[in-house]
Amino acid sequence: MFFKKDAPDSPSTFGINEANERKEHIFAEIRNSRFPLVRSTANFKVDRRMISATVTCPLEVVKTRMQSSQLKARVGRTSFVSPSCDGGHVRLLTVPVLREFTVVNLFRDIVRSEGISALWKGLVPSLIGIVPSRAVYFTAYAEFKKLFENVLMPGSALLHMCSAGCSGFVTTTLANPIWMIRTRMQLDHRAGMERMNIRKCISEINQEYGLRGFLKGVTASYAGLSETILHFVIYEELRSFYMTYNQSRDNELKQPSLNLPLMMLFGGVARFCATAVTYPHEVVRTRLRERNSLYRGFFNTLIKIFKQESWPGLYSGITVHMMKTVPNSAVLMGTYELVIYLLKNL
């Protein structure tokens, strides 16, 4: 059913194709729209990403540090009096103890030791990477779609999945040096004049690993592509179920309806489920990118973290990550559905 054919689509595949086609032409319709507000949405998407990256940067810094093994290695020391074995003298023993970092006290620790501006470490690479990564993704997507249309059925779910997967692979590879620099800057604990900037970071990575160092963590990022795929699969299933259930009522009203809060809920639920399944790749990626990392390889790191820290280690920082991504996905999918609705009905 996914390969190229001349026969018309079956009723079962028509719904999938219709959903895929509306995604395919949405940006072209936005750019050509006669409504200035709708037409500006294409540019607004990039601006929204930049604003979102700026506002949520403190959460990103805290999340990255919670994922890192450097946080686990930071210890305090406590002392206690111990009687000697012969009962004649006492000894003062000092032993290391691990300090438990919560989100709140980690925020406080960063501000106290590095200054409030440290919460925005890595922001510049994030902003630099937004526009080129989006441009590369959509360009690659269009080219791969043309390529796969020679083999797969136009408009099929497999066509869009293959195109999205390949374009994501290309974008992840080319943009990895930017995200490597961002992670290193977020993990830097120095303050004041000693604080790491982009030039120092590039020099440090090059001295430590050479050019191959800029691709650190790229295999974990490849694994992370499954999160986006799973998110959209879950969202489309929830949306399809709702549209089927609601179809009879729409026919009676003779006009389509849009339940925007429900679409936003679907977007948030889909992201929550996708993140819960795929989150360990985020921890692995951070461990591979940290300074003087003792980890080598994606699967080796995954197994090593699980053996040493169990599930809590693989899900370090997931609370902060959910605080950032779930509301963002809810707003994103709600905006997406609203724009489609306006284009079809205005």
From TrEMBL:
List the Gene3D superfamilies hit by this protein, alphabetically: Mitochondrial carrier domain (1.50.40.10)
Native source species: Trichinella murrelli
Q: Which residues form the signal peptide?
A: none
Q: Report whether Coiled coil shows up as a keyword of the record.
A: no
Q: Name one Pfam family in it.
A: Mito_carr
- Which molecular function terms from Gene Ontology are attached? pyrimidine nucleotide transmembrane transporter activity
Give a GO biological-process term: pyrimidine nucleotide import into mitochondrion
What's a GO cellular component annotated to this UniProt protein?
mitochondrial inner membrane
Q: Which domain of life does the UniProt lineage start with?
A: Eukaryota
Which residues form the Solcar repeats? 34-147, 155-241, 258-342
Does ATP-binding appear among the keywords? no
Q: Tell me which UniProt keywords the record has, alphabetically.
A: Membrane, Mitochondrion, Mitochondrion inner membrane, Repeat, Transmembrane, Transmembrane helix, Transport
What the record says about family reads: Belongs to the mitochondrial carrier (TC 2.A.29) family.
Q: Where in the cell is it found?
A: Mitochondrion inner membrane
Q: What membrane topology does the UniProt entry give?
A: Multi-pass membrane protein
Protein's name in the database: Solute carrier family 25 member 36-A
